[in-house]
Each structure stands twice: as C-alpha cells, then as structure tokens.
Write a structure and sequence with these properties.
This protein has helices at about 1-20, 40-45, 55-65, 85, 100-115, 135-150, 170-185, 205-210, 220-225; strands spanning about 30, 50-55, 70-75, 95-100, 120-125, 155-160, 195-200, 215-220. The protein is an alpha/beta fold. It has one domain (about 1-220): Alanine racemase (TIM Barrel, Alpha-Beta Barrel). Strand 4 (about 95-100), helix 5 and strand 5 form a beta-alpha-beta unit. The protein starts with a helix and ends in an 8-residue tail after the last helix. Bound molecules: pyridoxal-5'-phosphate. Pyridoxal-5'-phosphate binds near residues 34 and 202.
C-alpha cells in the first residue's frame, strides 16, 4: 500500500512542479510518520524515503533509535521548552515549529552548550486560527529579526499549517501570503537569516502549496493512510 501511495504522491508532486514551471529538485518530500509503527516507516524507507517528520519529542527519539542512520528527521510539532535539550543535536535536521522568542532562546542555549548551530523555521499562523500555534504574519518579521540575533541558531525559512479544507483552492491565498512574507523578509537582508525553505502543504493541499512556492511538503495520510489516535 505504501509503495503505491508514494508513487501517487510522487506523480502529483511532479505534476504540480510542472504546472508551476519548477524543477522537481526544488521540493523535498517529508513523510509524516507520527502515530505509525516502525514497520510502516521501514516500508517507506525501502521505497527510498529519507526525510521523516514527527510531532512529538519522545516518539521522534524512539524512532530515531530504531531506524537506519541515514535518515533526516524533522521536528514539525509544537515544542515545549523543557524538551528542547532532547532534540537539539545531530538527531534532528530541522525544527519547523519555532514561534516564540523564548523557545528560540532555549534552543540557542542548548546549541551553544553543544557548540553547534541549529537550523530552524519560523512557524507562521497564516490564517490566524485560534486553535493553531504560530506567530501571526504581522509579527513574523519582528520575531525573525529578534531570533536572528541568537548566535547558535540559523533561520532557514518559514513554516505554516494551513486550515483544513476540502478544496485546496481555498488555501491558495494563504500560501501566496506566506510566500510574499518570505520575499518581504528576504528583502530586509537580515544577517543570519535565509528564506530558502518554505514548509507548507499537507495531504489535502500539497499540490496547491507547491504551485505557490513550497520547498518542503509534509505528507502523512497520503502516504501512511488515516491515523487512528484511539488505538495508541
Ligand atoms: C500531521 C501533520 C502533517 C501531515 O498531515 P496529513 O494531513 O496527514 O498529511 C503535516 N504537518 C504537521 C505539522 C502535522 O502535524
């Protein structure tokens, strides 16, 4: 099942790239494996997937230990400050979910201790949904400027979780808005800040996100099937 799902996802990614006149190599597929057992992750690995996304620290660490070493792990979920010390280091390639200065500060402290620089994305709540984490678009530039001062953090771009919609076209304006925000930030030429990554697009809307400039799409259900939270 996973091989077939991955083939369909790959086809759609290629189609969306073609629609937008973009090269396939500009888009990284992150397989979001939260709640899924190792066997399914291994199936995806066998099909060539090397980027996995998890949203809980303990689950991420357990899976890191059980999976092959050449995987790039992405922390895509809300991160509590007291858990930062567990994810900073070579286990996690990118933290997608930094939305407060206090969280960035804690990441910086742990990074400094280890003598490393930690790449992060600033999470933007582009539709200003009350139920979601993320900084509002209007405050994102200021937050980016503040975090940029932290020596052991490197901002690599923006991340957003668009609203859940049936019709992906409904999210196109939000994807456009965050792309524009990344251009605005680029134009400010802030030291220590790159906007090379735009992490947006999930199972329901990744083709639209790619058409609007996504460089990372985070796909769970479309690869691993529905999640069953009650069974855990
Ligand atoms: C679960 C999750 C995804 C994947 O969602 P699907 O709709 O299953 O593709 C992507 N991003 C984040 C931050 C998530 O928590």
């Amino acid at each position: 099942m996973i091989a077939e799902n991955l083939r369909r996802v790959e086809e759609n990614i290629q189609k969306a790239c073609k629609n937008a006149g973009r090269d396939r190599s500009e888009v990284t597929l992150i397989a979001v494996s939260k709640t899924k057992p190792i066997e399914l992750l291994l199936e995806a690995y066998e099909e060539g997937i090397r980027c996995f996304g998890e949203n809980k620290v303990q689950e991420l660490l357990d899976k890191v230990d059980k999976m092959p070493a050449d995987i790039e792990w992405h922390m895509i979920g809300h991160l509590q400050r007291n858990k930062v010390k567990n994810v900073v280091g070579n286990r996690v390639a990118l933290i997608h979910s930094v939305d407060t200065y206090r969280l960035a500060e804690e990441i910086n402290i742990q990074a400094k201790k280890q003598g490393i620089t930690v790449p992060i994305l600033v999470e933007v709540n582009i539709a200003e949904e009350e139920t979601k984490f993320g900084i509002s678009a209007k405050d994102a530039i200021l937050l980016t400027e503040e975090i940029a001062e932290l020596e052991n953090i490197k901002i690599e771009g923006l991340m957003t979780i668009a609203p859940y919609v049936e019709n992906p076209e409904d999210n196109r304006p939000y994807f456009r808005k965050i792309k524009q925000l990344s251009v605005d930030i680029t134009n400010k030429n802030i030291d220590n800040v790159s906007m090379r990554i735009l992490s947006m697009g999930m199972t329901n809307d990744y083709m639209t996100a790619i058409e609007e400039g996504a460089t990372m799409v985070r796909i769970g259900t479309g690869i691993f099937g529905e999640r069953n939270y009650s069974r855990k």
